[in-house]
Amino acid sequence: MLLAAVGLPSAGAVAGELAGHGGGPLFAAGSVLGTGTAAALCGRAGRWWVVIAAPPVVLAARAATAYLADRDGLRGKALASAAVRWVVGAFPVMAAAVAVALLVVLVRVLLDRRARRDRPAADPRRAARTARTATRDTEAPAPPTGARPTPATPTPDRRSHRG
């Protein structure tokens, strides 16, 4: 999963730099595909981590490859203005990556709910417990056996009388 989340955006950024497009379509495709794959492969607890980690990963991949491609010309003010261009240029890709991750997570949640609802109880004890609970919820509660009857009038609280 980590390889998909970080490797594909980085590979797309490197391929884009080598092709001369920088943050172009190869970078966008690698970032969106990597984030979607990571969202599809992650566990239940990791779903939201993939969604919130997508923008920093995409930006880091773009900034690192752009900096390494022109390391000698980026110093001082040139580096600061290039960093702003990287953030602005990577923003649509970050938004698309988050949208794809959210879509994949939503589909997985809906499929998990459907599978849980449609799946019969595999354990016979669980099926019996479910049947008992359903019966218990529909019937009136039975009085406990062997218990003393409750008095018709409440007994006064002895602590309230001080003397």
The biggest beta sheet reads: none
SSE succession:
HHHHH
Strand content: under 5%
Low-confidence stretches: none
Number of helices: 5
Number of strands: 0
The whole-number mean of residue pLDDT values reads 78
Notes on the structure:
The protein is mainly alpha-helical and 163 residues long. The protein is 71% helix and 0% strand. It is built from 5 helices and no strands. The mean pLDDT is 78.
Key descriptive features of the protein:
single chain; 163 residues; mainly alpha; 5 helices; 71% helix; 0% strand
Layout: helices, strands, pairs:
Layout: H1 2-19, H2 25-41, H3 47-69, H4 77-118, H5 124-138
Helix pairs in contact: 1-2, 1-3, 2-3, 2-4, 3-4
Brief write-up:
This protein is 71% helix and 0% strand.
